[in-house]
Amino acid sequence: MTHSERTSAQSTVDIAALPSVPKVLLHDHLDGGLRPATVLELAGECGYTALPAGTADGLATWFREAADSGSLERYLETFEHTVAVMQTPAGLERVARECAVDLADDGVVYAEVRFAPEQHLDRGLTLDEVVEHVLAGLRSGESQAQASGRRIRVGLLLTAMRHAARSREIAELAVRFRDRGVVGFDIAGAEAGNPPSRHLDAFEYMRDANAHFTIHAGEAFGLPSIHEAIAFCGTDRLGHGVRITDDIDLGPGGEARLGRLANYVRDKRIPLELCPSSNVQTGAVDALENHPFDLLARLRFRVTVNTDNRLMSDTSMSREMARLVETFGYGWPDLERFTINAMKSAFLPFDQRLAIIDDVIKPGYAVVMG
What we know:
Order of helices and strands: HEHHHHHEHEHEHEHEEEHEHHEHHH
Low-confidence stretches: 1-9
GO molecular function: 2'-deoxyadenosine deaminase activity; adenosine deaminase activity; zinc ion binding
Mean pLDDT: 94
Active site: 219
Function: Catalyzes the hydrolytic deamination of adenosine and 2-deoxyadenosine.
CATH class: Alpha Beta
CATH architecture: Alpha-Beta Barrel
CATH topology: TIM Barrel
Strand order of the largest sheet: 1-2-3-4-5-6-9-10
GO cellular component, one term: cytosol
Structural class: alpha/beta
Number of strands: 10
Radius of gyration: 20 Å
CATH superfamily: Metal-dependent hydrolases
Binding site for substrate: 29, 31, 189
């Protein structure tokens, strides 16, 4: 086989083979990834009667259509139903267990799943109890996946809601559980009117504790949100960050001129937790073919592929990769690079990240690239 033939063979992606390659997921919401049948069953068990449909198929359709509004605020309303059925120990553990199993079945070998503990207190659980039950579910799911021949490791990110006033409390919770499976902290929710700098106390606490955090920024709001997340708050990663392109000018020949903030993000290798399907649904991008993922990848920003909310976007890591392949023509080496980008950016110790890259990711892609 000639070099050109080998390169062509390596580049051609067999969509059917995508579930078999190792993947790394950094941005996935626990309350956005429930199985529709589980939502229905948990609603029955806890007496929640406000579901918009009475069948699993009907629920799946409703969540997808409601999330396709093009508005982040409308998109976030869908979570009222999933959060409502995640208020009991059994509900939390089941959702977490199924999350780990579903991700492993899709070839995810490492994931960081996030959720907001403060939203799961309606039935008397404490913040610590909520986290304990989710961690128990994740560990159970890891064991179940391993028993079926799939190995996955799931770290937990604790999210504070940016419109509320509990971020310092949630940051302390994250540090309290960091040796038990919590790998970091996050803030989420509607960006407009809720700047990250409002939560400086929480971020200063995390930095003082030498703990990791990411910030939802640059999704529905532009460069000021990204600037504050980096300059004032010191974020390790950007949740979404698609609006960094507001600081990139393209010339008539396609040449790019980066502004100071975009240059800084690229120079510092600040990871972008891009979620292609979700970014279209929330209106951050008008169509997948116009998603800045490809531009940012070509400019060598540290781009990563993520699902955001698997239920609302009717997606998985394999589907996100397939959509990128079909839209931008990526090959196996590209997908391997995006996966290694994510593993480099994970909130794990360096030696553990390197071991997964060398022992799992690279051998896994070597199989499909021949």
